[in-house]
Amino acid sequence: QLRIVESGGGLVQPGGSLRLSCAASGSTLRSHAVAWFRQAPGKEREGVSCISVIGGGEGYGDSVKGRFTISRVSAANTVSLQMNDLQSEDSAVYYCAAGTLRRVCVFDSDAYEFWGQGTQVTVSS
Length: 125
What we know:
By secondary structure, the chain is an all-beta fold. Helices cover 0% and strands 47% of the residues.
């Protein structure tokens, strides 16, 4: 059973940066496609970024392209999300999800079997 724990959220001013971490236990994250989703109050869950099983590529939501970067730290069994130039609309609970149903990353929640509890990101002055 894969377990996922997100960390790194917090309060940051507009234009600031945060680095989120998705740490896994119970299985090897390297064998899973991994995605970050976010959900703000009153809004639908939104795909932020995803990374394929090793050997594939990455993807980003239109609203975060050029600002966010997803990467694997395989030795630590983690996936990170570097978030730069944060804006108010980035405020949300960020969830890490992993799955074996797809090899390439997609922004479809149903493609991911394992989910973390979420970490709060608040961008405010």
